[in-house]
Amino acid sequence: MYIDRIFQRYRLKIDGDKIYDPIRNKYVAYTPEEKVRQQTLKFIQQRLKVPASRIGVERSLHSLGVIGNWKRVDICIFGDHEEIIALIECKADDLGQWESAYLQVIDYAELLKVRNYFVVDSWAFEGYHFSDERNQYDPIDEIPTYEEMLLMK
Q1: Is the pLDDT assigned to residue 144 strictly greater than 90?
Q2: What is the pLDDT of residue 103?
Q3: Of the candidates 62, 23, 27, which has an alpha carbon nearest to the alpha carbon of residue 43?
Q4: Residue 96's pLDDT is what?
Q5: pLDDT averaged over the chain?
Q6: Are the C-beta atoms of 128 and 114 separated by less than 8 Å?
Q7: How far apart are CA 67 and CA 94, in angstroms?
Q8: Is 32 helix (H, G, I), strand (E, B) or coil?
Q9: S-S: 3 plus which of 36, 73, 112, 125, CB 3.0-4.6 Å?
Q10: Closest by alpha carbon to 31, among 44, 12, 18, 15?
């Protein structure tokens, strides 16, 4: 899904070299990747209807149950019982790191046994869902809402 026009509508709080993160409730360093992360947070809250209380930002794998692994997930979405229902990897569009982003988020999804993952930059939002039948992640045609993600098996 091309998302650049949607992202352009979002107003972000920027103060010099800092950008406000409403989930972490603080200003963080402004980088191209952080801008994408903040746009993505607005998108998943406004368009996908993900409650702020169900979003984790920059969470370590250790804090999510992979003991001793301090790598961080850009965004995770939790279900009703604190289970992770989706991971989102954000990348700055000018870095050309899509392949590494996919490898990274697939690794995290497999470690955490997460059924949905997304990779996003300022141009595109691509999603995948784990198919038990095919035993692999398959592309998602439409980005599901939070309620739809809760129902996905």
Answers
A1: yes
A2: 87
A3: 23
A4: 57
A5: 91
A6: no
A7: 33
A8: helix
A9: 125
A10: 18
Q: How confident is the model at residue 92 (pLDDT cuts 50, 70, 90)?
A: confident
Using the predicted structure, report yes or no on whether residue 150 has a pLDDT greater than 60: yes
Place of tokens 């969470």: 59
Give the 3-state secondary structure of 86-142. Answer: EEEEECCHHHCCHHHHHHHHHHHHHHHCCCEEEEECCCEEEEEEEECCCCEEEEECC
Residue (of 60, 78, 141) closest to 115 by Cα position: 78
C-alpha–C-alpha distance, residues 42 and 98, integer Å: 22
CA–centroid distance for 149 within its chain = 13
| DSSP SS3 for 59 | strand
**Distance between CA atoms of residues 55 and 42, nearest Å:** 11
The structure tokens 């965004």 sit at 75
Tokens at residue 45, please?
């809250």
Across 55-64, 118-127, 130-139, least confident range: 118-127
Average pLDDT for residues 64-75, to the nearest whole number? 94
Task: Name the strands in the sheet holding 26-29, side by side, starting at the edge strand that comes first in the sequence.
Answer: 14-15, 18-21, 26-29
